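Obj.: predict assembly geometry.
Materials: sequence records (below).
Method: joint structure prediction, all chains together.
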Amino acid sequence: MEYLLHILILIGIYMMLSSSLNLVAGYAGMLSIAHAAFYGVGAYTVALMSLNLGTPFLLNIICAIVVCGLFGAVVGIPSLRIKDDYFIIAAFAFQIIAFSIMNNWVSFTKGPMGLPGIPQPNLFGWEISSYPEFLLLTVIMCVVCLLICRRITHSPYGRVLQAIREDEDFALSLGKNVAGYKISVFVIAAMLTALPGALYATYISYIDPSSFTVDESIFIISIMIIGGAGRFLGPVLGAIVLVLLPELLRFVGMPNSIAANLRQILYGAALVACMLWRPQGLVGRADVLRK
Amino acid sequence: MNQWLTVENLSKRFGGIHALDSFSCHFGQGEVVGLIGPNGAGKTTFFNVLGGMLPADGGSIRFCSKQLVGQSPHRIAHFGVARTFQNLRLIRQVPVIENVMLAFRHQSGEHLVPLAIRWKKVRAQESENHEKALAILKKVGLLEKADDLADALSYGQQKLLTLACCIASDADLLLLDEPLAGVSPVMIDIVLEKLRELKNAGKTLVVIEHNLEVIMNEFDRVIFMDSGRKVCEGLPDEVRNDPRVIEAYLK
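Observations (raw structure tokens):
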């Protein structure tokens, strides 16, 4: 039972991560490989605040949202000048820098030893400690996050994001402030990662830099692409499929040492299969074929 | 002469090439002006500089007493300048109607604050715009394609769609870069009819065009450009018989 709840919580975390990435990458077309870095910034902000300052959970989340938003603006700025492949490299650089700081600034982040004993969250006197309680918190956060994403994507704002993805000059010629949209969507997406970051840190109660690597970013991107980039339901479905897929390996009695490697192979195979047969993702429009 | 849009000594260089060389002209409100000239004359560059896509190297553009040189493209579009591109620009992977709805100006739902706190107003404006977009699509004859992807339209239909976007933007000045190039004869008549409707609605149209018949019949005035300079301007008949024009095409 606990296992099942754990899986559901993980699905919720990845739904939030990939849905927020979808705003930037799926809608606005800026494939950011820095999403795990934002996630890490959120998790570390919450962990460090609750461990060092003992501040309440809600305040920690708010601070994490602000800090993530600031980092989002930092990564968003290069997107104004460079596009496509070059932007991917710039975001990739940010991901590496963020990981290196988490890993090497030992006096602040404890480096690879990580931060153990992160206190469990307390929301208005509600002590969250058991699996069902964490699942409830996950559901609340997930609903808030998805509602924000849906509001953004199903609006004139979201339409402009798609226009920027397809043709920036066309959007400019129609009077859309492309630079403003790029920065603001980056800030929003980064702010949203503070939610799963806070949840992860307090749920596992231990974080170390290895949870926020490039691999994690790529996993989040895979969820979005396999589910369907640029569609609201894409990352939602993608998170369910990609979190459950490797769990199936447990039931065929695979020893853990093999299953861990097989998991990577499985993700790769799923991506290739998706590119071959459903390039628009699981929920994409049938007539959309991305170039 | 009504000095609604005045361009003075506009210059644009690409390396050693003068794409625009002290180019001056003016346009009155409600005019349909043809911009003609051989390839590389600077016609599209003029549009790009006017729309702010390319920075000017010198000169001034005054539009309704506003200086356009140095303004960003989205600001210029907000002043009421719309354009179409020679190589079609559309948002291909979204439905036709979304392209039109994108073009409306002053949408409160395009900004985050109203999106967060004034959702009702955003929704109301959105459904109003949806109706308006359907009406525009009906006008250009693309109503039954409203939910198809823009990419699925034929070339001529895509040209009509860019025109629909211009109509939706409700701009007073329309810069049309070869709206008829590559369009089938049947479609040409439809496009021309829409252009006449826009003129009758009081819009100013500046059109880059090569089709002589269209130039003679549709334009109030023609400006002939070559090597970034204005060679001559006047009524279509006058320009057609100007020896400098004939020379430019023969050289």
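Conclusions so far: The two ends of chain A are 44 Å apart (CA to CA).
To do: check interface contacts against the pulldown list.
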